[in-house]
Amino acid sequence: MSGRERRMAVVLGVVAGGIAVWKVGLPVVHEQLFAVEVDNKKLRGQIEELNAKLQGVSDPRTRYATYVARTGGVDAEKVKLDLHAKLNELASASGLQSPRLTPSPIADYRPAGSRRRSGIKQVEFSVTADGTLESVVEFLRAFYELPYIAQVGTLKLEPPSGRNKREGFVHFRATIEALVPPVHAVGEVNPEHITQPASDVKHRDLRYAAIWERDPFTEYVEPPPPPTPMIEEAREVVEDAPPPAPPIGDPQAGVKVIRMTLDYGTAEKRIQEAMVVNVQDQTSAYVGLGEDLDGGKVQLVSAWGVVARRESGEEFVYGIGKTLAESISFEASLGSYPEVYYAYGKIRIQKVTEMAVDAGQLTPIE
Fold first, then answer.
1. Which domain holds residue 163?
2. Whole-number Å distance between alpha carbons of 108 and 123
C-alpha cells in the first residue's frame, strides 16, 4: 500500500470514528445535559423554598430581639435592679407617700398549664404606699409607659390607718411582675448590640379623670324617710278634682349627686358628660349634652358643674359633689360658681346672636 493510500485510510478511519461517536455519544451527552437542567430547576425551587422559610424565621427573630431590647437585656439580676430604681422614681414623681418596694426572689416563669421550662425568668415586686387616688393612677399610668414586659398582678386600695390616715388619701398595695427572656429562644441575640427604648405606651390616655376624680370610700348617706300618709275622714262631699301635676324635678334629687364631669375624645368626636351617682343604692349614670337631668336638658358640662335648662326657661347650676336638690338658679350662681356663670354666659350670648342672625335682625360678619 502506497503512502497516499495509507493516508486516505487514516482519514476514512477518523471520519468513521467521528460518525460512530456522534451517533452513539451525542444522545448520552444530550441526556446528561437535560438531567443537569432538571436538577438545576429542582435546586432553584428548593432555594426559593428555603428563602421563604428563612424569611419566616427572621420575622420572629426580629420581634424577639425587640422584646430583649425592651427588657434591657437577658440578665435577670440587672433587670431587677434597673426596674427597682425606675419604680422608685415613678413613685416619687407621682406623689405617693412612703412608698416601699419589696423584691421577691427571681423565679422560673412557666405559662399556665405548661410543665416545661421556658427559660424565661420572672422578676416580682410588692409595692405599698399612701397617697391620693390621683397619685395612684398617675403611678400606674407611668408604669404602663415603661418599656418592660411587665404588668400589675394584683392591686388593692383601702383607707389608710393610724398616723397615715388623711382625708382624701388611700392605702395602695400591688404586685408588679416583669419577664426576662432568655438569649437563645429565637436565634441568638447579642445583648451588647441592643438599646432599650425609653418607653412603650400600653394604654390610651382617655378616661383617667373618670378614675382619679372618684371617691372610692364614699360614706353611706341615709335616705330621708318616706312621708307618713295622713288619712282623714271626709267631712263633706267635694267634687272630683284633676290629679296634681307631677313634680318638675327628679323625685330622687335629694339622693343623687353630681360625682364628676368628663371631657374626653378626639377633635372629631368630643364627649362631655356628667356622672350622677345615687348615694342610696350606689347606682350611677352618665348624662351628656342635650340629655335629661332633673327635669331639664343639659346645656353645659364643665369641670366645676353642670347647667340644665327646663321647658319653663328656668336654668339651674348643679355643682360637683352636690345633690340635685342643692342646685341654684343660673342668675344666682355668680358668687358660688363664677367659672360656670361666665362659661355659660358666653354660650347664651352666642345662641342669642345666632337666633338674631337667623331671624335677619343681625348681619353676620364675614
1. 76-186+193-203
2. 9
For 292-316, what is each residue's pLDDT tens digit?
999 899 999 988 899 999 988 899 9
pLDDT score for 33: 63
Single-letter residue type at 29: V
Q: Which of 173, 203, 233 is the last residue of a domain?
A: 203
Q: Is 64 exposed, middle or buried (0-12, 13-18, 19+ CB in 10 A)?
A: middle
DSSP state of 207: S
Q: How far apart are CA 194 and CA 191, in angstroms?
A: 5
Distance CA 14, CA 67 (A): 75
pTM over 0.70: no
Phi–psi pair at 263, nearest 5 degrees = -140, 105
Q: Judge contact between 177 and 121, C-beta under 8 A.
A: no
Instruction: Kindly list the distances between the CA atom of residue 194 and the CA atoms of 201, 298, 359, in Å, as whole numbers in the listed order.
Output: 19, 55, 68
Domain count for the chain, please give it.
2
- Pair (198, 87) in one structural domain: yes
* CATH assignment of the domain containing 150: 3.30.70.60
User: Under 8 Å CB-to-CB from 266, ≥6 apart: which residues?
Assistant: none
